[in-house]
Amino acid sequence: MNTLLANEIANLSLSRRDFLRGLAAGTFVLATGLRPANAEETKYGAEAMSGGLRDDPRIFLSIEDDGTVSLLCHRAEMGQGVRTSWAMVVADELEAELARVKVLQAPGDEARFGNQNTDGSRSMRHHFQALRRIGAAARRMLEEEAAARWGVPVAEVRATQHEVVHAASERRIGFGALAAAAALRPVPAADTLVFKTPDQFRYIGRGDIGLVDNDDITTGRAMYGIDARIEGMVHAVIARPPVYGGTLRRYDASRALQVAGVLKVVPIEETPIPSAFQPLGGLAVIADTTYAAIEGRARLDIEWDDGPNAGYDSESYREALAGAANRPGKVVRNNGDVDAALAGAARRVEATYYIPHVAHAPMEPPSATARVTEELCEVWCSVQNPEAIRNDLSKRFGLPLDKVVVHALLLGGGFGRKSKPDFASEAAILSRAMEGRPVKLTFTREDDLQHGYLHTVSVARLEAGLDAQGRPQAWLHRTVAPTIQSIFVPDAQQSGAFELAMGAVDMPFAIPNVRVENPPAQAHTRIGWFRSVSNIPHAFAIQSFVAELAAAAGRDPKDYLLELLGPDRLIDPASVSDHWLYGEDPQRYAFETARLRGVIERAAQEAGWGRSLPTGHGLGIAAHRSFVSYAAVVVEVAVDTEGRLTVPRVDIAFDCGAVINPDRVRAQLEGAVIQGLSLATVGEITFKAGRVEQSNFHNYEVTRIDAAPRQIHTHLVTPSGFDAPLGGVGEPGLPPVAPALTNAIFAATGKRIRRLPIRNQLA
Q1: What are the CA-CA distances from residue 601 to residues 596, 632, 713 (Å)?
Q2: How confident is the model at residue 511, as a pLDDT?
Q3: Which of 19, 339, 602, 751 would suit a FRET pair with 588, their CA atoms being 20 to 30 Å apart?
Q4: What would the DSSP string read from start to end of 142-187?
Q5: Pick from 182, 212, 242: which residue ends a domain?
């Protein structure tokens, strides 16, 4: 393990004091503006809610005397490469050498940096233009300073490769020598900036740029939340209620306190459900080492009151959801007359699809280190949403926000779990119980799987009425799933508009009569957003059903899917649902069916759709739009006579608009394919008597190397210029993987898979 002392970690942040000290030392510091924020500027607006950079000193770019450029990144780095991609954009517009740009991680501070929640595949698409403005403004200020020194018009000088050059006189001067004076110049207005054209980019769009963190990560110097070491800290684990909503009835800690190294046993107050991001409660064991704390926890004598969810059982709940899907629900989209069209159909097709709970299971389980005194609360952790920690701890301890400091470290995976920072609150509560001594709280893998926030379980029932030519004239979709809103709102049973807008109400097919319904579903565990959220069940159901309709019509699945899209057109999301999608303007982010068509055609072409295959092999196709990006997947499967499934090849075509960092895009798509296959084949969390039945990777399985695809081919489709809205990358590759896989299994075996995970359904 790495040793990381408090004063070393504190150096990762850039405070206002650092900012002023930098100016005094001759360091150039720039944001999109160099003026103090006022009350009006700190109000939330659509831009702030969507994570946009504000026009005040929240995000800093600095240039030191030696020319080193430092960029402060306020988004979490969890393997998606945001710190590298941000550095590429700023270096390009600044005309800096990328090798001389270092990235610092911003501490949690919403007042200074705006929204810092790294969710929704927004880190680049919401900040690309702002980062370009930062780089271009800094370049202009350096050019103005050089021109003034030389007494020449600014139009005659040009920044290039970390220097400003006056070609006529062959004079040149480095960024570091200009920094102090350039920092005193007014920041150019955004509408006066001159941006590079794509043909002038040196880094943006290149596919051979390594991670800025790569050396530290591969040599073990990189600091993840679980690596934190604070002088004098102790270690803790928690025995939490085994059933969501359960409470501690009685306990005896005498045997736990006999374990060498155990210092204290601390009850944690249960939080009424729904609990949002609050601790579940329970009994904490604090010790000199994590091992001693775990040993002490094993010796606790605890009696629990299991509470209202003691009867939660996955099999019976699946039947309840299926029953709800067979009954009318809240109508959330209604076009034409579905009932009349179904009644007059030449043929009716219906199917029901099921997806279970799944867990995030990041390789680095949740961990946080906290030090809480009467005057200050500090937390060191891997977190996607540092502001959620600050807000909770400020209220919990009655401290001003500026007295709650969150040091955001690298994440060893997240997938949405680490934007729900209950674990940080637990560490802080225990530090207060230890009278300010630092406490490092660690989730074991068992804790992670059994006390996390699960992706929702879901059932979808679809029915279509086909005409004599096999074309659908009616489409009925009932989607039933406990909502994420259940952790915030008591008895929330209807999906939120944002959940329904993830593939259900914005279904793009040119069908004249469409109705989407949302029957109620009660949550019995903590539901949290998981990579791609509700796009996963909606894509699985819809893309599987399209393949079933193609079979019913005697058509090729790919051709049928393309025909369902109808003529190329723009679909305004507001026309099919009144929803809020991360503060985005639905007019700006219209659904372009031509782009979905483009990735379907590209994936099919690259996979050799229609080629001759050996016996037992099959190709399946599926496509989906999410987070303003378009993805299509073709999976080739092989199923032997014993029912063993292998995946020789996967092709994924992807259109997110302009591609900033091709290596990172490809890596995330490859990861989406692996995770999508894992969830489809083996991933499942089940409940019995209110308790999670899985405890570690022996029974919450993930895809092993021998089950991974033999080949994954990524195909980037980029029809849009750099001025068009960018799409997300981290999540959109995941939803079409499972239906492409199950459609391929049908092509190979004639067997329909409507319930995930597949497991032994092929035997």
Answers
A1: 9, 9, 15
A2: 98
A3: 602
A4: HHHHHHHHHTS-GGGEEEETTEEEETTTTEEEEHHHHHHHHTTSPP
A5: 212
User: Are residue 552 and residue 515 in the same domain, yes or no?
Assistant: yes
Which residues lie across from 347 on neighbouring strands? 466
Is residue 405 within 8 Å of residue 427, measured between CB atoms? no
> How many Cα neighbours within 13 Å face the side chain of 618?
21
Distance CA 143, CA 223 (A): 37
Shared domain for 318 and 301, answered yes or no, is no
Distance CA 673, CA 705 (A): 13
Domain boundary among 398, 423, 442: 442
Token pair recorded at residue 522 = 């009660």
Provide the Cα torsion 719, 720, 721, 723; round to 10°. Answer: 180
The CATH number of residue 562's host domain is 3.30.365.10
* Domain, as residue range, for 576: 314-359+453-749
Q: Do 511 and 586 share a structural domain?
A: yes
pLDDT attached to residue 574: 65
pLDDT of residue 56: 31
The counts of H helices and E strands in the chain are 22, 29
Q: Are 419 and 501 found together in one domain?
A: no
Cα dihedral sign for 600, 604, 610, 615? Answer: negative
Nearest to 657 by CA among 8, 198, 147, 211: 198
CA distance 63 to 332: 53
Contacts of 441 (CB under 8 A, 6+ apart): 235, 236, 237, 238, 284, 367, 368, 369, 370, 423, 426, 427, 430
**Rounded to 5 degrees, what are φ and ψ at 248?**
-85, 115
Q: What is the mean pLDDT of each run of 10 residues along the chain (763 residues)?
A: 32 37 42 30 29 43 92 92 95 96 91 86 89 91 97 97 97 95 88 93 94 92 95 98 97 98 96 90 98 98 97 98 98 97 98 98 97 97 95 96 96 95 97 98 98 98 98 98 95 94 96 98 97 97 98 98 96 61 61 96 98 97 96 98 97 96 97 98 98 98 95 91 85 98 98 97 93
Let me know whether 525 and 597 are in one domain. yes
Amino acid found at 157: V
| DSSP H/E element including 553 | helix 535-553
The C-alpha angle with vertex 31 and arms to 30 and 32, in degrees rounded to 5, equals 130
218 falls within a domain: no
Tell me, yes or no, whether 419 and 385 share the same domain: yes
- Nearest-angstrom CA–CA distance, 476 and 542: 11
Separation between Cα atoms, residue 346 and residue 357, nearest integer Å: 37
636, 700 contact by CB (below 8 A):
no
Residue 758 counted as domain residue: no
Residue 761 covered by a domain = no
262, 297 Cβ separation under 8 angstroms: no
Dihedral angle at the C-alpha atoms of 121, 125, 131, 136, nearest 10 degrees? 160
Of the candidates 191, 192, 159, 5, the residue with the CA atom closest to the CA atom of residue 69: 159
623 lies in the same domain as 675: yes
Calpha distance 91→102 (Å, rounded) = 10
Q: How are beta strands 439-442 and 234-239 bridged, if at all? A: parallel
Residue 370 and residue 235 in one domain:
yes
Alpha-helical regions (H) of 622-736 = 662-681
Which of 88, 86, 62 has its CA nearest to residue 74?
86
Angle, helices 535-553/737-749, rounded to nearest 10 degrees: 30
For the chain, the domain total comes to 3
The dihedrals phi and psi of 371, each to the nearest 5 degrees, come to -135, 115
